[in-house]
Design brief:
Keywords: Membrane, Transmembrane, Transmembrane helix. The chain is mainly alpha-helical. It is built from 4 helices and no strands.
Length: 95
């Protein structure tokens, strides 16, 4: 969790305009740099998806260690749901 928090703080630090800049050119550059960093953080969907999947994997491992029977039941339920969805799509395509 601390690494997630550190990454979030690093992203926030890149998107904040430092205070105390009196030169208008430097201020404009700092604002542009912060805006571009914010766009990159917000718009980088593959990176956000990878980070979310890593967080999910960590949570799933912790859940499996706490209660392995429930984790096995959840895995079986997910597998059944995916199989049912694939069967439904295949049935719709076959018609």
């Amino acid at each position: 969790m601390s690494s997630d928090r550190a990454r979030a703080e690093e992203r926030l630090a890149k998107t904040v305009v430092p205070s105390g800049i009196s030169d208008p050119v430097e201020l404009a550059r700092a604002e542009l740099k912060a805006a571009l960093a914010a766009i990159e953080v917000k718009g980088n969907l593959p990176r956000r998806a990878a980070e979310a999947s890593q967080r999910g994997a960590v949570k799933a491992r912790a859940f499996a260690q706490r209660s392995p029977v429930a984790a096995a039941a959840a895995a079986a339920g997910v597998a059944a749901a995916v199989g049912l969805a694939i069967w439904g799509v295949a049935r719709i395509i076959a018609r």
